[in-house]
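Hello again, I could really use a second opinion on something today. I've been staring at a protein lately and its backbone has me curious. Can you walk me through what the tokens say about the fold? Take your time with it, there's no hurry, and the full record follows here:
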Amino acid sequence: MALKHASVWQLQAESYRRHELHTRERAWLESNCYVDLCVEVLHAAGFEPWACLGFTLASDFEADQFTFFKPPPEDLSVLYGVSIYELNLWRPLIEHALVQLDRGAILLAEVDSFYLPDTAGTDYHHAHVKTTVGLETLDVEAKRLGYFHNAGYYTLHGADFDGVFQIEPKPPETHLPPYVELLRSMGQQKSSERELVATSIELARKHLRARPQANPIGTYAAQLGADMDWLLARDLATYHLYAFSVLRQLGANFEFAALYFDWLSRHGQTGLRDAGQHFDVISQTAKAMILKLARAVNAKRAPDVGAMLEGMRVAWERGMESTVVQLGA
């Protein structure tokens, strides 16, 4: 391993400025590790992440969770000339990272949040939980890693460095290689603002055509009724896993959809604010429902969430109807 240090942008955690999506007041400051990470990586690369959010229109209920939403690679290619694809790990991650960072590619790697200082108060040195980070700066001799995670950019070092890269004392054969993707710019000329907005709208229309045929919140309401006894019999730790996969993905997805429509409105696309308001109702209601269900699980008493579910179901219906009128499908 000849290389000892590699960095894409020479970022510093202390001076890094997050994208507006992660600084403005929001119901869901963090949605899921992948989409938040993509927002910050695109931002750091000089691209406008707002433009890729049309994919939120296709979110569905997948029987036991809402879609774990993230920007499709083909959208990133069309909008920004960015390619994203799997990296085959045939040697240790740290060796691949040095090579790829040196050539200007960001590595999106699944790691253990136990070793991530930005998760202090939740997983850091407390729980072993898989999450995705974006490797940006790597210094082997200093045992220092600069990385994107969730809504920001951070630094770790020392024993945490060893943990993230699965360095001894654990024998290597006890480790399964993580899933890793490469994200790199193909060097095409950046689009003008007008071109970017127009391309974004075309992609949004594509995702609108792929929206669920049945109202996904109505489908979820029926499933929650069937699952309620099971949920109430579980502890809060299990409920938090459920809430992340179901209500957080639902609420955060439609908050992004509402914010996306606000961005399009600020760039001349008229008529979308009504649909955005309906999607914001879904976001805000899902946030309130997470808390109400948590209290119910703790008290082991079934809650009355029928009005909340019906409000979200109607909001999805009206929001989609309004979107179709304004964007077409």
Observations:
- The chain has nine helices and seven strands.
- The longest strand covers residues 130-139.
